[in-house]
Every structure is written in structure tokens, then in C-alpha cells.
Sequence to fold (259 residues):
Amino acid sequence: MSSKKRSRREAITSLVQEQGAVTVGSLAERFDVSMQTIRRDVDALCEGDMLHRVHGRIELSEQFLNTPFDQRAGTNLLGKRAIGQAAAALIPDGSTVFISIGSTPLSVAQALRGRKGLTIITNNLSAAMALSEEVSNRIILPGGELRLPDRDILGNEVLDFFGRFRAGFAVFGAAGVASDGGLLEFHTTEVRATQKIRANAQKSILVVDWSKFGRQAPALGDNIADIDTIIIDRRPGETFAPLLEKVNDRLLVAEGEAT
Fold:
């Protein structure tokens, strides 16, 4: 395969990951190639499990699609609350904190309501609102378009925004954790935002509930082995025991061992 063809197919995959679905016609126009060429690209890309073709467009397969935010926020409430409280216990008054998007980082924000004098730098509007009642806090948000219904802001402007700050803590989640420890997201922009706040924080805190272990998502980010502190509600099972053993000195199990 030529390097030009490979680059185009990688770009198509990234575009579908970002948008969920893209028409074949718009791809031909975007890459300035014939419909026949794009159809060959699409046919090749749809041979795997991630993408499939439906009525003139290419889409992410259902198992790679994210669930609505309110549905995610309403699942495993006790586990996420325990994770949030464990994370908040590591963050003292007066700290500067990056908080990423997602329902579990939101649980951390909710648990931080008792703190004072925080500087919160976030693209998670729900997290910002959760901490807005404490008037001693300073809350800094990026500009841009609010993504609904998740109530977060993504895009290149967010990367520039996070790049202008330094923080003591970076709190973030993941859409999934692969068996090799790879942290997965549904969009490459989410990966880049997480990597940016990690790079600009003194301490990284990954917050994930047990259901994220083994969950599929298409965009690969960093590895769990590179995180300073990992907080889970309970251990996910024997399949991931070797992985968690490698990070045991940095692992907090918020609800104790699974029974």
C-alpha cells in the first residue's frame, strides 16, 4: 500500500472517530479523489470490526459508540461516589486542579465541594458548576462550542487553553482500559486533551470504575502504567489482576476488595 493511500485511510478513520459517521461523498470531496477511490478505501476499512458502511456513509460500529452522558452518570453511583471521595482526599485546600470531561471526574468535582480556595481548570461544565457554589474557588473554562448532551468543550482551542496553565493535579477518566493497560477514548481530541493536562500537572490521577476494564473504544491514549495514582471502586476480575499487580503501589481501591 502506498504511503499516500495509508495516510488517507488513517485520516478517514480519525474523522469517523471524531464525528461518529461521515458520508462517502463528503470524503471524496475532502480528500479530492474520485468516488471510486473512496469506495475502495471504505470497503477496506470496513473489513475490521470498528467501522461499517450504511446507506452511503461510513460509521463507527455500535460497540465503539459512547453512551449518553446522563446514562453514564447514573450508573454505578455508589462506586463513582467512593472514587470521588478517595480522589478528593488527595487534594488539599488551595490546590490548582485540571478536571477532564466524563462522569467519574464529575464525581471527583462533587466530592471537592468541601474544599476552599481551589483553582479549577476544566472543559467539563458540569464539574465547573458543581464547584461554583464555593466563592473562594477560581474556575477557569475554555472558549468554544459546548458539546451536548455531555456539557463539555473539545477541540484544538481546548488544547491551546490547557497548554497555558500548570496545575498540581490532573484528574481524568477513560472510556475503557485495554488488557495491556492502554487507556481508550471515543475521540482522539479527548486523548490529546488528557495528554496535555497530564503533561502540565505535577501529579496525575486516573479515576475509573471497574466496568471500564475491557470496555472497547477506538482512540488509544497513554498507558495505566504511566499514571501516578489510579483510583478504582473495586477490582475488575482475574483477567486484569496481572495488570493491576504491576501498578499496585499506585492503586487505590475505594470500596475495598470485590467479594
Remarks:
- The chain has two domains: 3-64, 69-253.
